[in-house]
Amino acid sequence: MGGLGAIGVPGLIIILVIVLIVFGPKKLPEIGGAVGKTFAEFKKSTKGLIEDDDDSEKKVEKKSDAS
């Protein structure tokens, strides 16, 4: 299975046209804003998890150095 990379540009254009037909042009800015906020929140949460993991590793290294 190719996953999302197998869609390609023509597939994305078709999906965009279908979304435009289903939701209409007036709703697209609202949908785009909601999707953007969702991705930003996801990125922020992921970055927070990675930083928490890095902090945990540093604490473990300090404890093992102190022993």
Labels describing this entry:
2 helices, 67 residues, 82% helix
Given the C-alpha coordinates, what overall shape results? Answer: elongated
Could you tell me the number of beta strands? 0
The poorly predicted ranges are none
Alpha-carbon Rg, integer? 21 Å
> How would you classify the quaternary structure?
single chain
H/E element order: HH
Helix content: over 70%
Secondary structural class: mainly alpha
Question: CA-to-CA gap between the ends?
Answer: 49 Å
Overall residue-averaged pLDDT value: 80
Largest sheet: none
Question: Which strand-content bin applies to the residues?
Answer: under 5%
The count of helical stretches stands at: 2
Descriptive account of the structure:
The structure is a single chain. The chain has helices spanning 8-23, 28-66. With 67 residues, it is an all-alpha fold. The chain is elongated and about 60 Å long. The model has no long low-confidence stretch (mean pLDDT 80).
Summed up, what is this model?
The protein is mainly α. It has 2 helices and no strands.
